[in-house]
Amino acid sequence: MQPIAQLEGRFNEIDGRYVIVVGRFNHHVVDSLVEGAVDALVRHGVDDANIDILHVPGAWELPLAVKRALTRIQPDAVIALGAVIRGGTPHFEHVAGQCNAALNRLQLDFDTPIANGVLTVNSIEQAIERAGTKAGNKGFEAAMAAMEMVSLLRQLGGNDDFEDDAADHGGVA
């Protein structure tokens, strides 16, 4: 019996272009997420010159800026950062849900990792915890996920390889 093949991302094969798209709303929390993301990238050897940071008003605007970055900059990965804090209206559900759904759709459509570091929390205290105190820094974690996915996808080969393989086997890519 053959062993099961296993692949995972490695953090020594992550060189490339990264775009961090940041929602400014709740900037007192989000600024720490950005610092964490940049720290993770630089610590793992990504050159400052290969990191772009785009600022948008809030989480609602993130998907459009991510789409434009994917089209124009063509990064190896995008890191989306923001904070949506529940209030007394259903606005939270609409913004958080639509932002998450759009980011996921873009990731699949562009075949490019989009690390979702958009906090969706019930209180400002929870947001602060996730921006570098008790619960770690979710910006750092999102950057780590982006780098891991870049490495993993490189090991799996590009989309062109997949389309060629599918055609060779009579399948549809």
TrEMBL record:
SUPFAM superfamilies given in the database record: Lumazine synthase (SSF52121)
E.C. number: 2.5.1.78
Residues that hold (2S)-2-hydroxy-3-oxobutyl phosphate according to the record: 88-89, 130
Binding site for 5-amino-6-(D-ribitylamino)uracil: 25, 59-61, 83-85, 116
Pathway: Cofactor biosynthesis; riboflavin biosynthesis; riboflavin from 2-hydroxy-3-oxobutyl phosphate and 5-amino-6-(D-ribitylamino)uracil: step 1/2
A single BP term in Gene Ontology: riboflavin biosynthetic process
Entry annotation: catalytic residues: 91 (proton donor)
InterPro entries the record matches: LS (IPR034964), LS/RS (IPR002180), LS/RS_sf (IPR036467)
An example Gene Ontology CC term for this record: cytosol
Keyword terms: Riboflavin biosynthesis, Transferase
GO molecular function: 6,7-dimethyl-8-ribityllumazine synthase activity
Catalytic activity: (2S)-2-hydroxy-3-oxobutyl phosphate + 5-amino-6-(D-ribitylamino)uracil = 6,7-dimethyl-8-(1-D-ribityl)lumazine + phosphate + 2 H2O + H(+)
A matching Pfam family: DMRL_synthase
Function: Catalyzes the formation of 6,7-dimethyl-8-ribityllumazine by condensation of 5-amino-6-(D-ribitylamino)uracil with 3,4-dihydroxy-2-butanone 4-phosphate. This is the penultimate step in the biosynthesis of riboflavin.
Family: Belongs to the DMRL synthase family.
Subunit structure: Forms an icosahedral capsid composed of 60 subunits, arranged as a dodecamer of pentamers.
Protein name, UniProt field: 6,7-dimethyl-8-ribityllumazine synthase
Organism listed in the record: Kushneria marisflavi
